[in-house]
Amino acid sequence: MRESQGRHGAESSSRKGRATQSWNFLWELNVKHKLKHFIWKCLHGILPVNAVVKDSNKGEGEISNGWSLAQKGWIKINSDAALQQKEGLAGWGMVARDWKGNVLGAWAIPNSSCSNPKLEESMALRAAMVKAKQQGWRRVMFESDCLMVVEEINREQTNVIRSVVLSDIWKLRTKFDECCCTFTRRVNNSVSHTLAKMALKLREQTEWKDVFPDWLLELGQADVAGRRPSFM
What we know:
Layout: H1 2-28, H2 33-43, E1 49-50, E2 75-84, E3 89-98, E4 103-111, H3 117-135, E5 139-144, H4 147-155, H5 163-173, E6 178-183, H6 190-199, E7 206-209, H7 214-225, E8 228-229
Helix pairs in contact: 1-2, 3-5
Domain RNase H type-1: 78-199
GO molecular function: nucleic acid binding; RNA-DNA hybrid ribonuclease activity
Protein name: RNase H type-1 domain-containing protein
């Protein structure tokens, strides 16, 4: 009994320590308090979450509509854009994970100008490709929740509005050994979406590599497990 109580006490202390560390990091971010509290609530289950949908015919470990892993040996980068058109601001969010779901890098990039949503999504994806190239990753899957952008990239069709951005994307694709662009639903793109919304409040780019804050790792794990905060 005493051993059990000791374990529970140690686990409780560990959880409290991680919670304190997460809050300290969030408090130091140059973002509005409202966004800080929102992230905090997401991490601690205070906000309602989308339940993991399981069909009775599926195996116990199967998840419906969850974020999917990349192929073995590949890197997957999800990107998203958020806009505040009245304020003329946009933000891009990106998260890179390996084929096991481990977070390799994350970026929140503010854009001091704001265009239409499709152009911002295109520029967020282009920025993700630039980051991948800088990291030296050779086999990369880029995933966006903007279907029209993904379709135009894969068809290699252009138009006046996004010709320059798409041309850059097509050129960047040739810099990788293997590269593909895929579509995912917004509900499966929650980490990059959160980072994009955070970027709206930043004055300069924020980058995480090697060492990641607990709240970012927990969001990434929730994404892989299909436990997604309902903030959309």
